[in-house]
Specification:
Blueprint (H helix, E strand, L loop, with lengths): L17 E4 L2 H5 L6 E5 L4 E9 L3 E8 L4 H6 L5 H20 L12 H23 L1 H13 L4 E6 L3 E7 L27 E6 L6 E6 L4 E7 L8 E10 L5 E6 L6
Parallel strand pairs: 3-5
Antiparallel strand pairs: 1-2, 2-3, 4-10, 5-6, 6-11, 7-8, 8-9, 9-10
Helix pairs in contact: 3-4, 4-5
Length: 258
């Protein structure tokens, strides 16, 4: 309430504060918020993304029928990309079917070299190709899809602390109510317009690091989501660096209250 005075201030008795829980479908469209606080009369809302003991921004899949370029960036992946990944996913599908869905990933002698690395290599090349088609749009859209296409507060609960981050990307957070000003400022954050580098994390065969301008850095760790073999892979995507203007407030929580 100190940084969002509209939470506790209405125009009149009809200006009711509403709380709404968003569906998972909204997250698939790039809206990462879990809870909305809404005042319809003021035409105002803020959202909160709640995390419990993890900082991942997105868990996205790759498979033979997922066009990540179209889904994430609005730019279709090339036939060359699918010609590289489809044989790998088709082989995984064959193993799954022939074992009646019982074969486990642990049975593969070297899944890093036979599955993860070739899929990541294809993803890396395709992301670079897509970037070259429209650099500014792709760089911005990638952050908007993975980090969020609406302004929001991220609340991260850990064992002894709660951290609040303000992703004020479009200037809709931290607004005053009439003459009541927020007690603290949550600055706007500048979105990236360039991808500077896409490369493997040092000493890793499963993680790509994507570096943008304006201090944005994302890590993409690929993994199998299930212990049993299936024809898809999952990304654990983390924001490992954000602009210095990102508002962060960390609150310590006594152990007895956890």
């Amino acid at each position: 309430m100190d940084i969002e005075p509209r939470i506790s201030n209405g125009i009149d008795e009809n200006d009711v504060l509403q709380l709404e829980i968003l569906t998972d479908y909204q997250g698939q469209l790039g809206d990462v918020r879990d809870i909305l606080a809404i005042r319809v009369i003021q035409k105002w809302e803020i959202g909160v993304s709640a995390k419990n003991n993890h900082r991942a921004v997105k868990h996205s899949r790759l498979s033979s029928d997922i066009d990540f370029g179209k889904k994430w960036l609005g730019e279709k992946c090339s036939d060359a990309y699918f010609s590289e990944v489809n044989p790998i996913f088709n082989e995984l599908k064959t193993i799954q079917q022939e074992s009646n869905r019982t074969e486990k990933w642990s049975s593969l002698s070297d899944k890093n070299l036979t599955v993860y690395v070739p899929v990541l290599d294809a993803f890396k090349k395709e992301l670079h190709r897509l970037y070259l088609t429209n650099p500014s749009k792709v760089a911005t859209s990638l952050i908007e899809y993975l980090v969020g296409n609406k302004d929001f507060y991220k609340v991260i609960k850990s064992d002894n602390a709660v951290e609040i981050q303000a992703y004020n990307l479009y200037g809709t957070l931290n607004l005053p109510f009439q003459d009541i000003q927020p007690k603290f400022n949550t600055p706007e954050i500048t979105l990236p317009s360039e991808i500077l580098d896409i490369s493997y994390k040092k000493n890793s065969q499963t993680t790509l690091i994507v570096t943008f301008n304006n201090d944005w850095v994302l890590s993409f760790r690929i993994h199998n989501a299930s212990s049993r073999i299936e024809p898809s892979l999952k990304f654990d995507i983390n924001l490992i660096n954000a602009p210095h203007s990102l508002f962060i407030n960390k609150l310590s929580v006594p152990q007895e209250l956890v």
